[in-house]
Amino acid sequence: MKEKRNCPTVWSQNPVPESPLASFEKNGFYLLKNVCNLDVLRDLKVVASAPKIEKGSVAIFERDGLSLRSIFNVSSTHLKALKHVLKQEAEQFVRDILGSPVFLYQNHINLKEGLGRGDQFDWHSDFSYWYWLDGMPKPRAVSVVIPLDPHSPDNGGLQILAGSHKYVHCASWSAHKEWSDKNMLHDGRDNCPGISRPSEYPETFDIYEANLSVGDALVMDANALHMSGVNNSPNRRATLFLILASTELEFESPFSGQKERPHYISNKLKEPFFSNISK
Known about the structure:
By secondary structure, this protein is of the alpha+beta class. It is built from six helices and eleven strands. The strands form two sheets. A seven-stranded antiparallel beta sheet has the order 1-9-6-11-4-3-2. A hairpin with a 6-residue loop joins strand 2 and strand 3. The protein is globular. The chain starts with 19 loop residues before the first helix and ends in a 33-residue tail after the last strand.
């Protein structure tokens, strides 16, 4: 049976009942409406639609080798835009969750081509990989999911298992396959098979379907189980992911015993990220 995590979900305080922080603590995510700067989103949508990948960014393709799946390290040329995409209320919410200044641990734009060419992302917990592959000791990090196009069930929108963040999902690591940027978005279950066994959890979880509008930001605990389906709509869907972590995290060597991953997937420099919060 899966064990419960041994660290907080909200690191700064005991949330006031019925507050957004209390909802985040219970479910492992919270949807903030209309908290993004639309002019910045328009600029980033241009990046997602560009015919060529900019220098410094890293392209990940679908299994067919043709359809673009993700663009990592957008910050290499658009750090200023990323720093200003969230309004102050969203920045403060993230800081209240993590209880410290935050840094940009990872950033990427996920793309799903339409008409079934944009494949699914299987159920997974991001922290399971950050622990084993990057030496992140505790899930003191969040993913901020920022739609550049609307999310809906027909275009492979995000789904989250509410409450799943409370458990240790991957207590061991199968090292038969070394990490590479060719398999990182496709073959996670080969290394962390426990995620695919829901019978091992002491409770059942409700599935939350995130119907997101441009301007929204969904803040998700690093340990929450989530997935997104195939894009069966006729249009490509783009989503910006900002992975924000506490500057108080003390990273260790990868617990899998593998070599350190490259900077674009695992930034540990801890440079304070938010520009609107001075305290």
